[in-house]
Amino acid sequence: MDKIAIVGASQTKYERRKKGEIFYDMIYEVTTKAMEDADYTLEDIDNVITVSNDFLDGRTISCMAVQEAAGAHDKNVSTIEGDGAFGAFYGAMRVLGGFGTTLVVAHSKGSEGDPKIITNAMFDPIYHRLLGLDAISSSALQASVYMERYGITEQQCALVSVKNHKNAKNNPYAQLPMDITVDDVMRSKKIADPIKLLDCSPISDGAAAIIIANEKRAKKARTKPIWIKGVAHCSDAYFLGDRDLADPISLKDASKKAYAMAGIKDPMSEIDVVELYDAFTYMEPLWLEGMGICDAGQGGQLIEKGITVMDGKLPVNPSGGVLSAHPVLVAGLVRIIEAALQIRGEAGDHQIKGAKTALAHGINGPCGQSHCVWILGSK
Amino acid sequence: MSEWLQDVKDLTLKGQIKVPYTWSVGEVGSRFLVALRDEKKIIGNRCKNCSTVYVPPRKNCGRCFKDIDEWVELGSKGIVTAYTIVRYDYPLQPTKAPFAYAIIKLDGADVGFVHIIKEGLDKLKMGTRVRASFKEDRKGNILDIDSFTII
Amino acid sequence: MARRVAIVGTGQTYHKSHRLDVNGRELINEAVTRALADCELSIADIDAIIIGNMDHFESINYVDTWSVEGSGGYMKPIMKVTTGGTTGSSVAIAGYYHVASGLFDKVLAIGWEKNSESDTTAAIVTCSDPIWDRFSYSGAIPSLATEASAYMEQYGATQEDAARVAVRERTHALNNPYAQMYNRPITIKDVMESPMLAYPIKLLDVCPRTDGACAVVFAAEGVAEKIAVRPAWVKSCSVRHTTTWFGDVDYNTGMLSLKRASKEAFEKAGIKDPVEEIDVAELYLPYSYAGLKWIEAIGFCGPGEGPKFIWDGNTDMGGKLPINPSGGVMCTNCIGATALLRVAEAAIQIMGKGEARQVPDVTNAMATGFGGCWWSDVVILGKDKPN
Ligand SMILES: [Zn+2]
């Protein structure tokens, strides 16, 4: 793979409800700020990828709302419908495939739609939709299989919530910085067993943008280029009953490919920080297992031992993660941005000292059916 | 956001995407739903290539990418391999909370079948044996199985 | 360095207004199976998949993950591209970049729609801005009618001119057994006498609604030549999705997005005189008037010259520049697949697999996509490897 880098990044503050900004405004804000970050003008943007979803936006051809806000006027542009980590991957392909730079933008306003109806529409209309499944209840099924299989405890999951909300206190963009205890999580309202309120990510509004450039164009940017060392995606089977929900095989596959591209042999020792898609607390240990950070079933202990806290051996979600702000679709792009900021040394109060290699991760579909894994590096 | 908006009553617009849908079930799915409706039977099908017995049945095996043509009649009993007790009510749900979603490995099938359990939630565990209970008035959809009951 | 990329196989369903015998995944599977058979590959050979359709036509959220059983995406990289009417060409262009990136050698691009499953207009009106446009936007036909009447006013084009385009599409479809309007020829009189929908557009001036799917296999240089006897090389792709609000579209300046996308695509492909160098075009013409006006935007003829260019027979089979040998969008419109069908049909022409609809000696073929807020995609394919 040719050398390509992230040279600009920006995000809005994530809020439960953005009253003052429509999609267009949010995208204009992050587009402008990403160009400022890179010290690029609109002429430096060769092409644009937008990320949106017609269900979330309550709009057919949802990308129509943001074309000009993303600076796509009279430029080549396309749209990925799915998580921003996937959209960014297509943006990267377009740089490898001939463009000098790609701007990738993603937006969503969870506040404007009905998340249960929207996520119910992920389920097959013939066999599953009438059952009323949504993102929470389906994830609860996955949590039950995973936790039962390996004896992962609700307390271990609660620790993820405690850690990530605490980390969010150091991230000015996060929506839910909180000091909470394991007891608070355990006593929070039962939603769908074993998932309780404080095991869930919030409903959020927000947007984010990155600029990807080839080696030559990266030189023009003000920022230290953050190199894309490896990236891969993969999908598991669709029907929940066809999958082993405690074994994220598609994440394993994507991780393996991304590591091979990046020359990573031992992720635990070679990766300095992980930003992963923790829509629910159980996902953090499960995804860490899928990424090969620890063995199957060891995710709970990894968290209990404090390995993933800010000053642990491998900090996970220093930004506060998706648990602290969950703008759907945007969230995977945010993981990439946060990983890049860590390597730049510009993560502010949630900086991991000396981070040189970072993993970022996004998911699509029910229960993490499809995963996209990114490895970013300083060289 | 500028200051003045703080003092303005929220201007919002309410709307809904009102599109009626008529999904084609297809030939394979129709056979499954007709068996539910007319015979109170759950049928699956077996991929010749990998021997997997699927339920609901599929036109093709997603893993082998070959058409499937062997029908298998499954029992209406099975074991729970995943479950969650849902504590919130929502109009999309077919019944009032608390109820459970479960993935059930039906006898004779190789993949799980997702449905609901309404009664005996305190007895529900991984491995619990359950049986499909059919509605009296069946319409040819997945809710012709009213729910699964603990045996 | 970007790699050269070619199309090595295509597959499509026999398009119908209603395919009640299959669900969406099964429909997709038909096209995928045919595309793989066309280039003698198995699903195991495919390195990545891109799929597209429009969400609210079937109400499936995350079609990429929902469809894996039909698309062959189990344990493969798959993502979804959706841009409205241009979805199919956007999917094709994504297929191109997947391979050009050097990351994937063989990639499957899929477009599909089951328009029978919903109310197309009820879904499409929601593409307009909910705050500013939705109260006044009543769907694609009135919007197109505005353009048509402006064009007639500007250049004196007539309803008969447009009818001539409609007749050409149905005549061409006589050669395409996959077309929904296969074997359903019409006359100018039929068009003129068909019910008026929104002046000057009548029923036979517009595309139908279709259930169908299309799949195209893209492969990298070095691989493509081994798979196909005559790969269809991608010479350029160009996209303009500029406008956000319908009120911003200027109907009097011609189809600006198509003009700009075509100009860039021709430049990238090294084409100086399109009407001489393009041998066949598969254009996304959703209604007959586009067949007059949009060929001007592409530069096949000058402003206002569209009707004469058509009446002279240039765009008929055997003419100087046959347009839509497949019968085009007015004979088949499974929306998420429609623009991919244009690319597939253009590739078929290069590969010499057009059978009854084959145009002889095709060196360069052009495909377009139309959609969104007057947006355009252009893809140029060639028999010869691009420089
Ligand atoms: Zn099989």
Can you describe this structure?
- The complex is a heterotrimer of chains A (379), B (151) and C (387).
- Chain A is an alpha/beta fold.
- Chain A has a domain at 4-114 and 205-218: Peroxisomal Thiolase, Chain A, domain 1.
- Helix content of chain A is 34%, strand content 19%.
- Chain A has 13 helices and 11 strands.
- Chain A has a 9-stranded mixed sheet.
- In chain A, a hairpin with a 5-residue loop joins strand 10 (357-364) and strand 11.
- In chain A, helix 3 crosses helix 13.
- Chain B is mostly beta strands and 151 residues long.
- Chain B has one domain (21-150).
- Chain B is 9% helix and 34% strand.
- Chain B has one helix spanning 26-39; strands at residues 42-46, 53-54, 60-61, 66-67, 70-74, 77-86, 99-106, 113-117, 129-134, 145-150.
- Chain B has a 5-stranded antiparallel sheet with strand order 8-7-6-9-10, with no helix packed on it. In chain B, strands 2-1-5 form a 3-stranded antiparallel sheet, covered by helices on one side.
- Chain B starts with 25 loop residues before the first helix and ends with a strand.
- Chain C folds into 2 domains: 5-120 and 210-227, 3-Layer(aba) Sandwich (Peroxisomal Thiolase, Chain A, domain 1); 131-207 and 234-331 and 338-382, 3-Layer(aba) Sandwich (Peroxisomal Thiolase, Chain A, domain 1).
- In chain C, 35% of the residues lie in helices and 18% in strands.
- Chain C is built from 15 helices and 11 strands.
- Chain C has helices at residues 24-38, 55-58, 63-66, 68-71, 87-100, 120-124, 140-155, 159-173, 188-193, 224-227, 256-269, 274-277, 290-298, 306-311, 335-351, and strands spanning 5-12, 48-52, 78-80, 106-114, 196-198, 201-202, 211-220, 232-240, 280-282, 364-371, 375-382.
- In chain C, a hairpin with a 2-residue loop joins strand 5 and strand 6.
- The radius of gyration of chain C is 19 Å and the shape is globular.
- The B-C interface holds B 13, 15, 17-29, 58-63, 65 and C 19-26, 29, 42-43, 56, 58-59, 68-70, 72, 74-75, 114, 116-119, 122-123, 126, 130-131, 134.
- The structure holds zinc ion (ZN).
- The site of zinc ion has 7 residues of chain B, from loops.
